[in-house]
Amino acid sequence: ILDLTNFSKINEDYGHDAGDLLLYEVEKCLGSTLRETDLISWVGTDTPGHRLLPSDRKTQYRATIARLGGDEFGLLLPSAQTAEQAHSVALRIVETLNRPFQIQGHEIIIGCRIGISIYPDHGKDEKLLIRNADKGMHRAKELNQAVYVYEKEMQNEKQPLAGAN
Hints:
It contains four helices and seven strands. By secondary structure, the chain is an alpha+beta fold. The strands form two sheets. The chain has a five-stranded mixed sheet with strand order 2-3-1-6-7. Strands 4-5 form a two-stranded antiparallel sheet. β2 (64-69) and β3 (72-76) form a beta hairpin. α1 crosses α2 (16-33) and α2 packs across α3 (83-97). It is globular and about 45 Å long.
């Protein structure tokens, strides 16, 4: 889960049109930052009954990027098999987004926080993985870190209230 920092201030200071343009630029950056092995959406599926490719063809998975709402994005990285690999991709994303954007003649600087959860260590279904990645993102905010990998010790912590950034 990726959350942009100070996004509401961008809307307040420069208006919602500038905020929308910034989100568009962020989406472009996310797409260009990920490698071909990570890239947006997937081709094929291994789910029985849902094959998009002939069964004799190798399935290629790529990352999925989705805007979850407001200034929050969800990223699915099937090629990342370890927390270290996911952390490396997250740091690449942070480096790309922590730079000035030129929006409507204004130099706008944003940052982001990323929380990571890994299947199956941190959950075996999408809801739990998203919840745990969100907990990691909130922990990154608490610790003023760019990236935080969910830890099993966090499982009994309450989920922060929506909008409590």
